[in-house]
Amino acid sequence: MKNVVIFGAPGSGKGTQSENIIAKYNFKHFSTGDILRKQIAEGTELGKIAKSFIDEGKLVTDELIINMLDKELESAKGANGVIFDGFPRTYAQAEALKVMLNKRGTDVAVMLNIQVDEPELVNRLLERGKVSGRSDDNMETITKRIKTYNEQTTPVIDFYKKEGTCVDIKGVGSIDDIFASISKAIDSAKEL
Ligand code: AMP
Fold first, then answer.
1. 3-state SS assignment for residue 43
2. What is the pLDDT of residues 7-38, one digit of tens each?
3. 189 CA → ligand 1 middle, Å
4. Residue 81 burial by CB count (10 A; 0-12/13-18/19+): exposed, middle or buried?
5. pTM of model > 0.70
6. Is 145 one of the catalytic residues?
7. Active site residue 128
8. DSSP structure string for 89-100
9. Number of H helices, E strands in the chain
10. Which residues pair with 31 in a beta bridge?
11. Is the shortest distance between the CB of 167 and ligand 1 below 6 Å?
12. Cα separation of 162 and 59, whole Å?
């Protein structure tokens, strides 16, 4: 089994490249953002709490996210691999993911650190906002999300550097070229 963390700032292309990974490797995909948006659409308690954080460009609390993912992971039994998209977003979440996977006899095989500079991120998110209908794809929230990423999420890179599983991916250029680098990293990762 290969567990892949697809990592990067908002707008770095995690969602797009996750679709390519699913098409090629048939891995199971967990996007914490998608799960939260589904909860909001369904009007659940978790959805109501999450909406206030999302619209402010802030992170939902570690406890809520970790519990939510731990439950979702039950559906990954027997999968060839799993893509974690938008998770972990804090150092504590990275530690919790290791515990969750270790207790299931596995671990993260590779962390793909997709690198895109800030002006490009803002452009992409503003473009996406024209069609996505996402309440957080507007200039004010985009600025807050990038700040949150810089302050709270970048320490995750150190976690995976220490683990020896972080691979830097240049996130600008054609989608196909970026995916070629991603495929190479996944193919080189050890099956766990
Ligand atoms: P995304 O679709 O991954 O850009 O996530 C959208 C929003 O959902 C984020 O800006 C956060 O408010 C929230 N969110 C998604 N994943 C997480 C996570 N792992 N930890 C905390 N908040 C999250």
1. coil
2. 999 999 999 999 999 999 999 999 999 999 99
3. 26
4. buried
5. yes
6. yes
7. yes
8. -SHHHHHHHHHH
9. 9, 5
10. 85
11. no
12. 24
